[in-house]
Write a structure and sequence with these properties.
single chain, 306 residues, 48% helix
């Protein structure tokens, strides 16, 4: 009886947290389209005409194409812009499976071939940069240029799942207790704290719209984004990109925030393995320079693309 009472109580708390988080409806968009991929529906929007560019959001909790809201319209004036919610994130389906780098490589490759249907540029944030690199290495004919926004460090990408992280993943993936733990990890307070400490330098721009969009993405489909997040935290989305990085002849450009942790070392490591990589740094920004200073970011990006 006690175990049943505890289980029911936790379930009701989970439902309450999910319901409250979905009131804002920040992720809905009249431009929403869906690609029927073999592992689930993938939400994307398409805007503008010109040379195509695919936008890939980061893999942190709550991520979605909302990350690019401040630049999509301006970018669509010169380019055909595609912004997607990766499988397990945003308004895309969130199946219960292990999310790996190669799974996302398959998704990006299929999306470009079936939806964009021509060679495209790719703009990727954080951990998604490794997906773009590996997709390009896997099929050089589908990707033209690659732009990385504060890509994950090469050192971190080399980390593989440990026994401890596998236990963490198993616990988070469990039905009621795992959902409860996930909901506690992704409370509004914790999301705000992550933005203040890790992602945004100018904290004045951290508004309700931004936090509510990330919170909503965490809670959609009965918090089933926990499956993608558990794989991300357990390092299943990591991969060693050194071999691919050395072999690529594609143009690669990094845009980083000046206040990002060890940004100079990060750029040096990438250029060490591929000397043709170019980079720019935006002052007074951190992990999301396109959110903090979209004007300067678009200026750098447009100069590079055109």
């Amino acid at each position: 009886l006690f175990i049943s009472f505890v289980g029911i109580t936790i379930h009701l708390i989970n439902k309450a947290m999910e319901t409250v988080s979905l009131f804002s409806n920040r992720l809905s968009n009249y431009d929403n389209q869906y690609y029927e991929w073999r592992f689930g529906k993938i939400r994307f929007i398409k805007k503008g005409t010109g040379s195509p560019i695919l936008l890939l959001h980061d893999l942190i909790p709550g991520s979605s194409q909302y990350e690019f809201n401040s630049i999509i319209t301006a970018l669509s004036k010169t380019n055909e812009v595609y912004a997607i919610d990766l499988l397990g994130y945003g308004l895309s389906d969130k199946p219960n499976l292990t999310y790996t780098n190669y799974l996302y490589v398959q998704l990006i490759s299929d999306f470009i071939k079936k939806i964009i249907n021509k060679k495209t540029d790719v703009l990727a944030t954080g951990s998604s940069f490794s997906i773009a690199i590996m997709a390009c290495h896997n099929d050089p004919e589908i990707i033209n240029r690659i732009v990385g926004i504060n890509p994950e460090s090469i050192y971190n990408l080399n980390m593989i799942p440990s026994q401890y992280s596998k236990i963490q993943k198993f616990l988070l993936d469990s039905p009621i207790i795992g959902t409860f733990i996930y909901n506690l990890l992704t409370t509004r307070k914790n999301i705000e704290l992550d933005f203040k400490e890790k992602y945004i330098y100018n904290q004045a721009i951290i508004g309700n719209d931004l936090i509510e969009a990330y919170l909503e993405s965490c809670r959609l489909n009965k918090s089933s984004s926990k499956y993608a997040i558990s794989s991300f935290l357990a390092k299943y989305t990591n991969t060693n990109i050194l071999h691919a990085l050395k072999e690529l002849n594609n143009s690669i450009y990094l845009i980083c925030g000046k206040e990002e942790n060890e940004v100079d070392t990060l750029i040096d490591n990438y250029t060490y393995y591929n000397g043709s990589i170019e980079s720019s740094i935006i002052k007074n920004t951190k992990h999301f320079p396109h959110l903090e200073d979209s004007k300067e970011f678009l200026k750098m990006l447009t100069l590079y693309l055109n």
